[in-house]
Amino acid sequence: MKETIGTSPVTPIPSSEKVAQQGNEGLTLKPTMSSFPSLTFGRWLFWIGLFLFMSVVALIGCLRFGTQVLEFSRILDILFQEMGRTPAGGTESDPTRVILLHVRLPRVLLAFFVGGSLAAVGVALQALLRNPLADPFVIGISSGAALGAAMALLFGIGLSVWSLATLPVCAFGGALVSLLIVYRISATHFGFSIYTLLLAGVVLNAIFSAFIMFLTSVADPNRAFGMYAWLMGSRTGPDYPTLGILGIYLGVGLVLLATQAHSLNLLTLGEEAARSLGVEVERVKKLIFLASALLTGAVVAFSGLIGFVGLIVPHAVRLALSADHRLLLPIAGLAGGVFLMVADTVARTLLSPAEIPVGVVTALVGGPVFLYLLMNHRVRFGT
Amino acid sequence: MNSPSSNTETMAYSISHLNFGYGTSWAQTRDAVLSDLTCTIESGKIVGVLGPNGSGKSTLLKLLTRILRLQVGTIELFGRDLQAMSQADIARTVAFVPQETQQSFPFTLAQMVLMGRYPHHSGWGGWHWENSADLAVAHSAMIDLDVAHLGTRLITDVSGGERQRAIIARAIAQMPRVLLLDEPTAFLDLHHQLEIARILRKLNRERRLTVIMVSHDLNLASQYCDHLILLDRGRIVKEGSPEEVIEPEILEAVYRCRVLVDRHPQSGMPRVSLPV
User: Fold this and answer.
1) Tens place of pLDDT for every residue, chain B, 276 residues?
2) Residue B160 in 3-state DSSP?
3) Least CB-CB distance to B127: which of A8, A38, A261?
């Protein structure tokens, strides 16, 4: 028999021998294991800082483009001026200033919040369903939310400020119901199957779309047209109070998800293994369900159906950086925000002054990526 | 009979009148997986749970770590009622190595092993950063299981044997008092089978780690276990030392086939062979 203990040729750390010799006394040792790969707070902070910085740079870059291209110096000028001012003061006479602060900035911020939330939901659903291809749009959660919102829109609730607060609640209900359905269908005795999950998503999407079409066909034509535009993810820039309401919904959802980041790591091992490692699986699952439905509901209510952000972004971050959800969740959130800001900028400038719905852009980019991943994953999931 | 207080230290598990069935509660009696199971597992022993497919072995292990919730009966872990403990509490005392681990996310082996430290930290959703003690424990477990050089490899890319050893390293990193293994050597080659068996015995001797393992490998069980429990259709058919349990008549009745039992040339323990 090969003597492996302590003499393994590839253990580069001198302290490892000490640990091995002393057996379980290793607990009392405090060696610095520079080559032992682990996520430290310092490393975490570095990546978060880097991506925050990149997000700000991307945000300013996206503010530059529109029907009229602005100078960077002018953008920074206006932004810095605005920061030093009280919100109530001054009249808006400068048109560039009005465009920047009241048209482009809110819209870019909306895209950032929405993209970040979609990516975070993608990360959480992928861990929950143990499936790297899960995305709130693909598996039918978004259309569930859309149906909830559509019902609210067509039966009574008009587009008042009050509706901005209630619409997400109805969308949340729709998202939660469809999430529970998808979860029940794909959680077979043999674990989660990618194909069951995707098929359940396809069928749910079809059913919910049929309901939405039915609702629009019986609705008043003016309302129906507005609904179509909304479903395609096409929105003009929101005002700041609207952004604030959205921010509250998303903030609650994101904080809930973030608290469960480490448990998500263990959840990817499967519920049984997670439980044997000390995770209160049922509690974690409930929180993930609620937070994901809340985020999806709020996003759909404010921005309509935007697909594939929750799929591409987490996948890229996982490959490039780490599968550890403590890092993956916040970084995917920031990267998702940047991704959707850029996609939205493309959507509003490509055929300027006409606009493409941003959902079209993300689907055209994300759909092929999804197919590619599905083809490459066939072997690994093929049970 | 021992007094209850000394009982808590000598008995890792006291199981009494355990009944379990999958499915809805009113259908239990018809397809019971375990029926009226009563036994104790002594602390510091290596215990083998044997029996044909479907005899309830894996179910028993899952009940012992509360992956499955108890329906009827009681389980005491070192004198404490298992139902009253928190999941993290259990995980600090008992580690579980499942039969097979499928992982479709690109975690590194080191990240995988460090997950064993989860129950030792508290906080919202277990949010914590691993400290140097966690790293030392994980690293020493990886050395024990001969996977320390694979720390940066992805769990999705290593061989089945390497993955299984990493999972056992994760269980060791939990620093448990009891280790439960569901067919730990099923996917391993001869060299690593022997390695795992020896490591388990070493941990058992040095740390007084109680090991409970489900196995189809009667010879491995005979060689390394102090105590065997033979299950058939959810009932204990026979328990005792390998000499008492590995008897042709008993095995033939349970496995419903003829077996030959002779002695291992080195250890003198019973050895099972199938007839030609």
Assistant:
1) 444 445 567 899 999 999 888 765 544 455 688 888 999 999 999 999 999 988 999 999 999 999 998 888 999 999 999 999 999 999 999 999 998 777 888 899 999 999 999 999 876 666 788 888 899 999 999 998 889 999 989 988 888 888 989 999 999 999 999 999 999 888 788 888 888 899 899 999 998 999 999 998 999 999 999 999 999 989 999 999 999 999 999 999 999 999 999 999 998 899 999 988
2) helix
3) A261
- B124/A259 Cβ within 8 A: yes
Domain B4-233 has CATH 3.40.50.10140: no
Nearest to A262 by CA among B33, B123, B233, B272: B123
**If you measure CA to CA, which chain A residue comes closest to B117?**
A277
Interface predicted TM-score (ipTM): 0.89
Residue of B nearest to A285 (CA): B125
- A356-371 as b/e: b if 16+ CB within 10 A: bbbbbbbbebbeeebe
Is A276 within 8 Å of B91 when comparing Cβ atoms?
yes
Number of inter-chain CB pairs under 8 A, A vs B: 180
pLDDT tens digit sequence for A294-309: 999 999 988 888 889 9
Residue contact A260–B125, C-beta within 8 A: yes
Please write the tens of the pLDDT for every residue from A320-357: 898 999 999 999 999 999 999 999 999 988 887 788 88
Give the E-state strand segments of chain B in sequence order: 11-21, 32-42, 46-50, 72-77, 80-81, 94-97, 178-182, 210-214, 227-232, 235-240, 260-263, 270-273
CB B66 within 8 A of CB B91: no
The residue in chain B having the minimum alpha-carbon distance to the alpha carbon of residue A9 is: B149
- How many Å lie between the alpha carbon of A262 and the closest alpha carbon of chain B? 5
Backbone φ, ψ for residue A70 (5° rounding): -100, 155
Domain boundaries defined on chain B: 4-233
Taking an 8 Å cut-off on Cβ atoms, the answer to whether B103 and A275 are in contact is: no
Answer whether B132 sits within 8 Å of A272, measured CB to CB.
no
Which chain A residue has the Cα nearest residue B97? A273
CB-based contact B139 A5, cutoff 8 Å: no
In this structure, which CATH number among 1.10.3470.10, 1.10.10.1760, 3.40.50.300, 3.30.830.10 belongs to the domain A106-381? 1.10.3470.10
Q: How close does chain B come to A88, measured CA to CA in Å?
A: 40
